[in-house]
Amino acid sequence: MKISLVTALIMFTTTVAFCSCKNSSYTPPQNVVNAFKTKYPSANRVEWEVKNTYQVAEFHINFIEAEAWFNNDGQWVMTESNVRYSSLPVVIRNSFESGEYGKWEVEDVDKLERTGMETIYIIEVELGEQEVALHYLENGTLVKTLMDNDSRGYQPESAPQVVLQFIRQKYPQANIVEIDQDKGLLKIDIIDNQIMKEVVFNHQNQWVVTTWEIWQNNVPANVMNVLKNSSYANYRIDDIDYEERADGSLVYIFEVEQGDREFDIMIDVNKLKIISAIPKN
């Protein structure tokens, strides 16, 4: 029997649509079910599915939609919840409304809880065809701004144990905020004594550098004198970063500009000299 192209396409589309639906009768292993019930005893309208080897429960609790992720050992790893904007902590709302995107339209708000990591609130906003996702800590600190958010959802984030152990030893007071892979590097954002820092590891999980922003009045006078006595003395300072490097060097990076000229000036703390001046345009 011959089947027309149109009929074949309809059958294919219907099959794909059917396969992509959740199986409402699916039940994960009992250890996962027990762990879920222990963590969310008042959850209702629960449906399960498998995502990237994780057992994921979609459910409602206190009139809020949520999605909880568990590994096959029954260990909770992440929960994403929809949140009403009016229910956000006041400090986050104040931070958003007084910020660059405070006049944009709020499209969605999510709360992201992950094991061993800081809780994050994501405010998705839009203006015309522009979309931005703003990531806030519970204390109102904006830690990440993602342009053109594509709403793909969030996945559990993890890092090798050797990396986590390094962070625990070097920054014992720190909490992890974000974990990201970028161009072969593992980048972990931490909050250490109220300071946001980026800790970078290479593909062999070896520490490369830790960077954080610093205020000008916290830069040592002898370092500032190096800049003041250089050919960049009359340039305006836009931003300052501080780096701890694996080779033992400590470096201040000054973003400076004069007219349409911009440079990254790197000053070595131990040598008290400019080690590089990289034009930015």
Describe the 3D structure.
The chain is α+β, with helices and mostly antiparallel strands. It has three domains: 22-147, Nuclear Transport Factor 2, Chain: A; 161-213, Inhibitor of vertebrate lysozyme, Ivy (3-Layer(aba) Sandwich), CATH 3.40.1420.30; 216-279, Nuclear Transport Factor 2, Chain: A, CATH 3.10.450.360. The protein contains five helices and 16 strands. It has helices at 5-20, 30-39, 90-97, 161-170, 221-228; strands spanning 44-51, 54-61, 64-70, 76-82, 105-114, 120-127, 130-137, 142-147, 175-182, 185-192, 195-201, 207-213, 236-245, 250-258, 261-268, 273-279. It is globular. Residues 1-21 have low confidence and may be disordered.
Q: Summed up, what is this model?
A:
This protein has 281 residues and is an alpha+beta fold.
SSE layout:
Blueprint: H1 5-20, H2 30-39, E1 44-51, E2 54-61, E3 64-70, E4 76-82, H3 90-97, E5 105-114, E6 120-127, E7 130-137, E8 142-147, H4 161-170, E9 175-182, E10 185-192, E11 195-201, E12 207-213, H5 221-228, E13 236-245, E14 250-258, E15 261-268, E16 273-279
Antiparallel strand pairs: 1-2, 2-3, 3-4, 4-5, 5-6, 6-7, 7-8, 9-10, 10-11, 11-12, 12-13, 13-14, 14-15, 15-16
